[in-house]
Design goal:
- The chain is mostly helical.
- The protein has one domain (about 30-110).
- It has 4 helices and 4 strands; from the N terminus they run E-E-E-E-H-H-H-H.
- The strands form 2 sheets. It has a two-stranded antiparallel sheet. The chain has a two-stranded antiparallel sheet with strand order 2-3.
- The protein is globular, with a radius of gyration of 13 Å.
């Protein structure tokens, strides 16, 4: 796209541990994990967890789910991708405690 945002070429389906399926539609956009630039050496935007970040972006932007559920699904998706537990913990905590402004901004656009 613009070198910072990417769009899916086809739908992606994530199945939660409880069996619920969540579909991200083709053409949905994401900038990957939204870690601040000084942390990119630890958490680059497109690490192993980037599909989970894509899902999380879509949940914030287009679902009616509460923020804590969106954050939990992000955690579940990272675990399903085999992301190491330290990274899962760090990224989950970052969005859970620091993602309210992004959640509010995305919901305001709905």
């Amino acid at each position: 796209m613009d070198g910072q945002h990417f769009a899916l070429l086809e739908d992606i389906v994530f199945e939660r541990p409880n069996g619920e399926k969540i579909t991200i539609k083709a053409n949905e956009q994401s900038d990957g994990a939204s870690a601040p630039r000084p942390l990119w050496n630890l958490f680059p935007p497109f690490g192993k967890y980037w599909p989970a970040a894509y899902l999380h972006d879509a949940l914030y932007r287009y679902s009616q789910l509460p923020k804590d559920v969106c954050d939990t699904i992000f955690k579940e998706a990272m675990q399903a991708l085999g992301v190491d537990e330290e990274t899962v913990f760090s990224l989950y905590e970052a969005v859970h405690f620091g993602g309210q402004a992004a959640f509010d901004a995305d919901r305001a656009k709905q």
